[in-house]
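Appendix B, record 7
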Amino acid sequence: MKKSVAVLGLGKYGKSLSENLYRMGADVLAVDSNEELIGEFADKCTSAVCANLTNEDEVLALGLKNMDIVVVSMGRNLAASIMSIAVAKEQGVPLVVAKSSSERMSSILLKVGADKILDPEGDGGARSARILISSSFKDFFQLDENMYMIEMEPKKEWIGKNLIELGLRKSMNVNVVAVREKGQLWHFVEPGEPFTENSLLLIVMEKKHMKKWK
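C-alpha cells (predicted):
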C-alpha cells in the first residue's frame, strides 16, 4: 500500500526529499509559499500546493489528516514549523517529523508535538526518504553507488525463524551481517538463532534489490 506524505517547505532538502519519495512510489503532497517554485515542481510530486504555512487557515485547508506522514522541512522558519506541526498533530497524523537548524529549535519542535527531528547534515534527501517510506528500516547508509547497509526490524513473518529457515540471501538477495536485541550490543548472527520481536538486524544489499523493501 502506498504511503501518503506531505512535505511542507521546498528548500534544497525538502525538494530532494519530495523527489525521492515520489520516485519510490509514495503519494507526495509538496507545499511551499513560493508560487513560482510550486509551478516548477508540479511534475515531481503527486500534488503541489502554494500556501502560507504560518497561516492556520491555509495549513488546515491542506487536509493533512489524510496523510500517513507529514514532514516539516522549514528548518529556519520556527513560526511556520510550529504551526504546521500543531495542525498536523491535531488532525491525527500518525507520524510528524521536522527539520531543525539548532538544538534549541529541536527542543521546541519536540515540545509542540514533532515525533522525530530530521538532521539535514547527517541525512541526505534520498536516505531520509528510504527510512520514511519503509515500515521496517530504522537507519540507512549508502556505502557506494551500488551497496547499501540497513538497520531494520525483522518483518513479522520472520519472527521465531532463523536464517537457515528463511534463506534470505537466496530469496531476498540480502546478507544479514549482525544482529542485536534492543538495548544490547551487535554480534555476528548464529544461523540457527531465531529472530524475536526485539531483534534489530544489520543487512547489506545491492541497489538493484532496494525496490523490494518498502
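Remarks on this record: The first strand starts at residue 4 and ends at 8. The longest helix spans residues 78-90.
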